[in-house]
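Ticket #4471: complex job returned nothing on first submit. Input attached below:
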Amino acid sequence: GAVVSQHPSWVICKSGTSVKIECRSLDFQATTMFWYRQFPKQSLMLMATSNEGSKATYEQGVEKDKFLINHASLTLSTLTVTSAHPEDSSFYICSAPLRGLDTGELFFGEGSRLTVL
Amino acid sequence: KQEVTQIPAALSVPEGENLVLNCSFTDSAIYNLQWFRQDPGKGLTSLLLIQSSQREQTSGRLNASLDKSSGRSTLYIAASQPGDSATYLCAVHTGKLIFGQGTTLQVKP
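Support reply: We reran it on our side without changes. The output follows.
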């Protein structure tokens, strides 16, 4: 199947610093990518939709200035958590649809676990 | 607003049993429904994708059905094995993926 890669898989940072997470589609192009976060023992919550060459679309309640998304190429989207705080500690997962957005199967990265001290 | 519910939240069965996981959704206007597996601390692995025009999909010991009119999907796992222990998530695609809370399955040897 299609492969989506995330990096780093885990990161620990101090409060107030910024952290960048990369999401790459390794063997297909993705004009759209999705970013999710998952708290322990909870399901995935969509944060934003990343669109290649244009601004990301954020879900209600997600601060766009805090969670900066850049989708500069057809295979790479980045999520930057700015001025991270302990409450931002979470599991962040990206996904990309193979083929069409409406019918395509979504493939997920392995996730990035962020711990903010 | 689309809501996805999975029942049960947790399930423990002895090895070899056949089992059914349930997923319901409130709005039938979906593109497709996807079942995923998630191991602790890991990302999601896609198991089965059912397009809105389809009724079921099969892969090995897994069979997923979709009844769009009633807003239900089931994931049937035959002859369960300890390696099937994981959290199973269903998600409906409405232009974005809306996830259920998941069913955590434990298969005991």
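Chain A has a mean pLDDT of 90. Closing as resolved unless it happens again.
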